[in-house]
Write a structure and sequence with these properties.
Elements (H helix, E strand, L loop, with lengths): L8 H7 L8 H12 L9 H8 L3 H10 L5 H12 L11 H19 L3 H12 L4 E5 L4 H11 L6 E4 L4 H12 L4 E6 L5 H12 L3 E6 L12 E4 L12 H17 L1 H18 L5
Parallel strand pairs: 1-2, 1-3, 3-4, 4-5
Length: 282
């Protein structure tokens, strides 16, 4: 991590789990801790257990799995990690703070992108999927649509899945039957149950699941083969999706880089068609 990038409390809590192999139950506890930072350092083990929907002994075992003596030690560590640190993100009014927090989210995303090969490999995986289904329900639907709008200019068959219900599994299975090998899913708070059900259905259909989500320990992490985290801003009444949107377009660049000749051919064909039909003024 770049020393010049201040870490948000949630990012510091996520760092507790780096390199630790967590069970599904422990992932639920970890996600609970991230979602309730910074107040989590003042909760009892019983309160954490209730919030996470697990037993109190599970919370104690979770603390031990992190290499700590027990929950009291974990709580002390959480208090240290979530202590408010004054800086640019805490200056100004609440609207300015929200925007500065988003700048911090983008800075941390930039640090993650230092591993270009991982993103390049994901780009190749999605570029090779014909068709390419793109899932986004409820709050994530606009991100899926925005990504798909541009992806369709360089990929021959992009299918947006933005409606839930019983037909969603049908459409996933139809995409797999048509030759799809991967699914790109946008999984953002508050994590619609039908989105997670769709990820299970995609895996059952043999698709490799790539998830853009808000945290490495979000509910999607248990169901995705590739997890690409980008923090969501939660300072305003409704969430800010600046970092996930940016990550989506960076991933699309990786898809373009995976097949540069085909990308160039398709873009030139689109531009010729747009000019012939006079689609744009500029």
């Amino acid at each position: 991590m770049n020393d010049g990038v201040a870490m948000a409390p949630t990012e510091r809590v996520v760092g507790l789990f780096d390199g630790v192999r967590l069970t599904p139950t422990q992932r639920r506890i970890a996600h609970c801790l991230v979602q309730h930072a910074p107040a989590v350092g003042y909760l009892s083990a019983a309160e954490v257990a209730e919030l996470a929907g697990v037993s109190q002994p599970s919370v104690t075992r979770f603390a031990v799995a992190l290499g700590l003596d027990g929950y009291p030690a974990l709580r002390r560590r959480l208090r240290e990690l979530t202590a408010a640190a004054p800086g640019p993100a805490t200056a100004g009014n609440e609207l300015q703070q929200a925007v500065r927090a988003e700048i911090g989210n983008l800075d941390r995303l930039a640090e993650q992108l230092a591993d270009r090969e991982r993103l390049a490999g994901t780009g190749r995986l999605l570029a090779a999927s014909r068709p390419l289904p793109v899932l986004g329900l409820r709050a994530a639907a606009p991100l899926a649509a925005y990504f798909a709008y541009f992806a369709a200019k360089v990929h021959p068959d992009v299918r947006v899945l933005d409606d839930g219900g019983s037909l969603l599994t049908d459409r996933l299975e139809q995409a797999a039957e048509a030759g799809a090998s991967a699914l790109l899913a946008f999984v953002l708070p508050r994590y619609p149950r039908e989105t997670l059900d769709a990820l299970r259905a995609a895996r059952d259909a043999g698709l490799t699941v790539v998830a853009i989500t808000d945290s490495p320990v979000s509910p999607a992490s248990e169901l995705a083969d590739v997890v690409l985290p980008a923090a969501v801003g939660a300072q305003l009444v409704f969430d800010l999706h600046t970092a996930p949107m940016t990550l989506a377009m960076v991933l699309l660049q990786a898809i373009c880089d995976a097949a540069p000749a085909e990308t160039q051919r398709r873009l030139e064909a689109f531009e010729a068609s747009a000019a012939r039909r006079q689609l744009f003024l500029g």
